[in-house]
Amino acid sequence: MAPIPSVSPTPLAGDRRRALLREAREAPPPVGVFLIHCLPTGRIHVGGSLNAPAALQRTQFELRLRQHRRPQLQADWNQHGPEAFRFEVIDRVKGRDEPGFDWQGELDALVALWRQELVTGDLQAYGEIAR
Fold first, then answer.
1. Model-level pTM?
2. CB proximity list for 50: less than 8 A, separation 6 or greater
3. How many other β-carbons are positioned within 10 Å of the β-carbon of residue 77?
4. 131 pLDDT band (50/70/90 cuts)?
5. Which is nearest to 52 in space by CA: 73, 36, 34?
6. What is the mean pLDDT of residues 94-99?
7. 15, 58, 80, 90: least surrounded by Cβ within 10 Å?
8. Which residue, 67, 76, 74, 71, is CA-closest to 39?
9. DSSP string computed for 32-83
10. β-strands 32-38, 43-49: how paired?
């Protein structure tokens, strides 16, 4: 019986994979605006973060632990459950290749625009943070 030839990965496959992993680690986190929407109540929270996906993950974690800072959001989560919520990044700050670019300033302006756009009529914003 003839031996089965061994299959070795091509040298570029490993190098390419390492290069992609390095790029992902070195890439800046996505700065953006996120939306949390309780579908049954129509209430929303529009926020911004220098790492928007991480902010959404943190929010979901706090809600699961029943320790979110916005009491009405936590109450809706407790009453309706996670299936009743939509979490998404709705916009991203387009960075510029200029020294001293104000990421936080751009983010604050973008959040203000989205809040003005979305908090109307049927959509109500969640209240203030509990202190």
1. 0.77
2. 29, 31, 103, 104, 107
3. 22
4. very low
5. 34
6. 80
7. 15
8. 76
9. EEEEEEETTT-EEEEEEETTHHHHHHHHHHHHHTT--S-HHHHHHHHHH-GG
10. antiparallel
